[in-house]
């Protein structure tokens, strides 16, 4: 299975490296980036990638390439999905597909019509902890799902410049948790209510966003849920999920780099949490790429479909509207 | 310090027993209950209480008695507070004062005008775990409070007959968490939004209530919070609080009767949670009574004032309105 | 069931208080202490004990008294056991019975011949954590016992003056763990090997003792075990047991006063351990007295028999000999 | 830095794979195995190793090769160390160097005389948990080391045929813990006392070995320690270390593949432990190879020297002697 990677930024490089190390079924033939330079060329060489180019068309037009990884900037995702679909290539696309719902639908439809695989990069579904909770829920260990709680806090806020273009906390951060909520509940969200505050960085408030947010969720199956996000947790990444049901409760604890404990006169200190996202989710990035290879090679449905890419965007739109209007917003209001 | 207890039901007996065992500063002179019988008289004797009566006035009119514990049914709380205040007695009253806000205000005012102490029985403020979290927050260990999360789940739903008269989940169950939220935040709640479902017992739904609920909170200081309640957690009482702030996160873990762990081929099993509320909060009931004795004897403000009894009722009223109207409700709407 | 307490020192007072609060089946008629004074008389009154005396014979000769609690100094234990047995009274005696094996045997025999109950004060058998581990082992959850590990560390070393008369670390401290080892293994120890060092307090070394010790155990059933003791753990009482068997491993974690956790940039800090022995084993002291009442009233064997008092002394003697001679010592060498 | 690997069994392949994936500073030129076959050749190709051979001399005689990894059977280790040393190559050798002390000394001396690096494969020094404990100890967090405790239990006993040739539990299993004890204590062991039983597999007893063992350790600096081993823990790998000192206690908890917890009516179940050694110590194998590359390239002392390979063999010999003779054995008895 030959692949091309469009976009050689941070995430493109992570996937390239992971494929070269951990996904022997995949062979990267070409990596494209409009800002291709010597450094990136050296990186490509170190991963055993024979071709580098500034032109994504070199990948899209290459008949030898079976699948495309779209790791370029968000505004180009839907365009490349459509072009890759037309070229008959299977597609892995970083999240989100787009913030414009029409473009999202167009991209999903293009992939469907072309009969190619489409997987969206919601890597947290592949995290060892969250996956173990999911497995417990799927195996009926908690019975019927009643309450879902997700905490997701980052070590440091992003630059305000990023917040201005990212669409805000619901689009660039909580979108992962929206996906996780659907994933764990096995049911669609029908309504959200958002509350938020600017408690971390006044600059984020000036940019029109909040940095601390709580969103309650109603699911079609009657379950209810809540997600909390903060742009800054001084103790590092705090990523926990909890699924409470009729027969029990499955939850994970925050991940730490080791299990060492130091007991002194001041108490028992457990290790600090991860401070770097790439360390926290190392295994998840590998696993999602292995899953994509498996879906393409064995002709299975991808584990994160185009629709899975769509719904979190709907939820982000509804949460944003809810925050601004100070009232619960139904997903159907957004879809309409 | 001589006290009289009005009401010899379950909670009245718990306080009587605890005072006789753990609060040597207090001496119970009389216990009153309209259904006084031989069994209760024997109980009183075992606690060293010299007098039993069917008439609460025997307590209210006794000049030797310094303080009254009001442990009767909720509908009599405000009446007895007012009468005890007029009699110049310090007052410990079980929560809630009343569900009728006028009555609550009248009771609080009566105590104020009489210059007597009034403490409301929000015992969870005295729980060893929640108190330790509170102490961390109060001592500035988490910095400025940004997010408050409270989980409170009971082992079994109450009978539907109880739900019909209790005022519903927000009044009889979440009211403890409303108090805890204020206690931990050190700030008043200004707005709530409630979502709820009937997922445990359809009979509760038929009685017009929900058995699973999530309420988001906005605090005056900008912090946001969420409380989740379920009427039934198969693993027993699940009582956890979390306060996330600018400098860290304080949380407690659910309490278990012991720390034993069994590792077998199926995993490492930690002990079950408490299944009986009186076991779970044993120490808290003792501590609140010691605090009341301390407030009276040393002329300090009680640690749970009349206003502390009022605000959770306002929050319960707002949450109920929010659930019914499907929109966030400001506390000021209720107060008006 | 009427009881008399011989000895009104710290432990005598703890038992008196606990009985008055938690063991309604027992009524303390008399407490005796050669140094009886006003303070102790006031204490007795607060516990509802009608009689105080300087003469233990007032208890031993009182035909109304059913049981005697021997809480006097160790050198008087065997004498009082024998006298109480002759007087036909059931006996609870603090550990150890004596360090002189002949006296231990004489005391046990006296109780047997008189047909009275004898319970030794190894309170840790009643600790909530250790008991839960014991229950798991007894219920076969770990299968056949292969390895037993016990850690027992104190917050502060005792005064050197105490070490000089206590018999040393194996007699005054590890004796609890020797009992726990037999209790958990359900098998007798046949051989011990001791290693020790003076690492905490040079004065303890000058007094001829060690303050840090490891003793390996061989059990009759083939299991092996190890106990470690330190006179000083800066983080407080560290009391853990572990039973590893063919089907799993049961262990307890050290006890803390609460479950609160503070996560900051420095890591997640769990609460400090107990610093005061009476706080750590509060419940155990109550439970052992309830068990004694149950044994006497319902004519059951006591849960800690005279033999249970004998064996740990044999083990302490063997460990002391092993440490001095630098070789493993069989229990049969001591018994002979 | 060009390397050759002698021995393409399981551990040779693990190192080859890890180098190709995670140690870019190293380039494997040749892999040698007397049983070289098509499968191994394919494996070599997949790792980008250009040459395969049946003759280790192709590596030893290759002037381009800077370092040799000796992953062949134990009986050939010392021979290859000596030959590689004579050939001027830096050496990474799997543990143990040999069981014959003369051969061990000869190998160490050969490396010393040749001025080449020698690192022994005690991979557990590089484990994320044990390393974090080590760091705490090294940084003085526990003060002066008083007690060291190490638990090491395997999921399944090895075949009896292996036990017959491995030298027994002290040589093939506890040798890792002997190394860990020295590593953590920062002091040499002067005396050991071993107790052991056959509790897992009677066949191991028939082969003259034990399957359950406890060894107490005396260190030159006065600290004392204990190691327990069992050939079979039904719950999987149980690998824990604890260092107790004058200022605190550093310990790690057993590793689990994830942090998920399931609370049901039966208690809270944490995940099972690892069942496969390669999963448990994945990171450690990588880290030891990175450390070897670092030592060679930057001309540092290797983190596990030849002497570090020698001492655990001395301890295993002493423990074996102690078990057979039923007495403590000084390391100096073995060295002599």
UniProtKB/TrEMBL annotation, chains A, B, C, D:
List the GO molecular function terms.
Answer: inositol 2-dehydrogenase (NAD+) activity; nucleotide binding
Where does the Gfo/Idh/MocA-like oxidoreductase N-terminal domain start and stop, copy by copy? Answer: 1-122
User: One Pfam family this chain carries?
Assistant: GFO_IDH_MocA
Keywords annotated in UniProt: Oxidoreductase
Keyword check for Nucleotide-binding, yes or no: no
Please name the InterPro entries in this protein's record: Gfo/Idh/MocA-like_OxRdtase_N (IPR000683), GFO_IDH_MocA-like_dom (IPR055170), Myo_inos_IolG (IPR030827), NAD(P)-bd_dom_sf (IPR036291)
Q: Could you tell me which residue ranges the GFO/IDH/MocA-like oxidoreductase domain spans?
A: 130-250
Enzyme Commission no: 1.1.1.18
**Recorded family membership:** Belongs to the Gfo/Idh/MocA family.
Q: Which PANTHER family match?
A: BINDING ROSSMANN FOLD OXIDOREDUCTASE, PUTATIVE (AFU_ORTHOLOGUE AFUA_2G10240)-RELATED, NAD(P)-BINDING ROSSMANN-FOLD SUPERFAMILY PROTEIN-RELATED
Protein name per its UniProtKB record: Inositol 2-dehydrogenase
What is the gene name?
Answer: iolG
């Amino acid at each position: 299975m030959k692949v091309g990677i469009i976009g050689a930024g941070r995430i493109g490089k992570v996937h390239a490296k992971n494929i070269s190390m951990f996904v022997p079924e995949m062979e990267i033939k070409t990596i494209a980036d409009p800002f291709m330079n010597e450094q990136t060329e050296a990186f490509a060489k170190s991963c055993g990638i024979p071709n580098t180019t500034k032109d994504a068309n070199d990948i899209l037009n290459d008949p030898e390439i079976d699948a495309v990884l779209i790791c370029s900037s968000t505004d180009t995702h839907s365009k490349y999905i459509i072009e890759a679909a037309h070229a008959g290539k299977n597609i892995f696309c970083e999240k989100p597909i787009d913030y414009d719902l029409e473009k999202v639908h167009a991209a999903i439809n293009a992939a469907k019509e072309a009969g190619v695989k489409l997987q969206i990069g919601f890597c947290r579904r592949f995290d060892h902890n969250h996956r173990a909770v999911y497995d417990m829920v799927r195996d009926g260990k908690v019975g019927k799902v009643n309450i879902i709680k997700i905490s997701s806090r980052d070590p440091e806020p992003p630059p305000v410049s990023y917040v201005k273009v990212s669409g805000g906390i619901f689009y660039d951060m909580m979108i992962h948790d929206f996906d996780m909520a659907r994933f764990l509940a096995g049911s669609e969200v029908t309504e959200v209510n958002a509350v938020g505050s600017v408690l971390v960085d006044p600059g984020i408030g000036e940019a029109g966003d909040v940095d601390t947010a709580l969103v309650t969720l109603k699911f079609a199956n009657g379950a209810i849920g809540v997600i909390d996000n903060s742009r800054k947790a001084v103790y590092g990444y705090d990523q926990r999920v909890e699924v409470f049901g009729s027969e029990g409760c499955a939850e994970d604890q925050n991940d730490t780099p080791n299990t060492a404990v130091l007991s002194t006169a001041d108490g028992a200190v457990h290790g600090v949490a991860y401070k770097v996202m790439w360390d926290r989710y190392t295994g998840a990035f590998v696993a999602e790429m292995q899953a994509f290879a498996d879906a393409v090679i064995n002709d299975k449905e991808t584990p994160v479909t185009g629709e899975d890419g769509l719904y979190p965007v709907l939820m982000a739109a509804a949460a944003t509207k809810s925050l601004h209007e100070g009232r619960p917003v139904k997903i159907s209001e957004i879809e309409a």
